[in-house]
Amino acid sequence: MLAAVCTLHLAVLGCLLGTACSIEVITSKELEAINGTDTRLKCTFSSSAPVGDNVIIAWMFRPISGGDDQTIFYYHKNPYPPTDGHFQGRAVWDGNIMRNDASIVIRNIQSTDNGTYLCQVKNPPDVHVEMGEIQVRVVNKAKLSEIFVLALVIGVGSAVIILIVLAFVLCRYYRIKKIHRSTPVSVLECSEKLNEKPGDMKEVYA
What we know:
Elements: H1 2-16, E1 23-27, E2 30-34, E3 39-41, E4 43-47, E5 56-63, E6 70-76, E7 78-80, E8 91-93, E9 104-106, E10 115-122, E11 132-139, H2 146-194, H3 198-205
Parallel strand pairs: 2-11
Antiparallel strand pairs: 1-4, 3-9, 5-6, 5-10, 6-7, 8-9, 10-11
Family: Belongs to the myelin P0 protein family.
Domain Ig-like: 21-130
Transmembrane segments: 147-171
């Protein structure tokens, strides 16, 4: 019994020193968000300790202009969204602790939300040193690739040229076909006149 207690104490001490237990927070490094949309900030974690009610999650915001980090969301057994400040009513819980998901959503994201979002996860006795960081850049609209636009212009231009050439060729084809339909009658009449004998010609003139 005493040996078991000693072993447990050593394990907890090892976790506190960061040698036996560990927790890892995973986020995307950069995120481009469209102005006015609801943007999900994904944060997942792995822990060597069982995940339960001891999990503590804190989201912080570091403005692009600089300054102190601001806590914008807190979770411990229940989500606690901000009750005042810039993110009031806009930072909402979108995670699932049992699936190691600590994500949140920023509703109606604005250009003033540009900056770094920090996701911190604690799962005692696991400790965690580095926080997950997401550099968010808010843009007015999704940008089309310049190569895509150029290819689109070239494709449309080529299609128009092909249609014009095709129409011209078809017009000439039907025009020539119409001429050929009327030509055999005239040639036949000319051939009969040329093949008439001189005597016949005299009779005609008489």
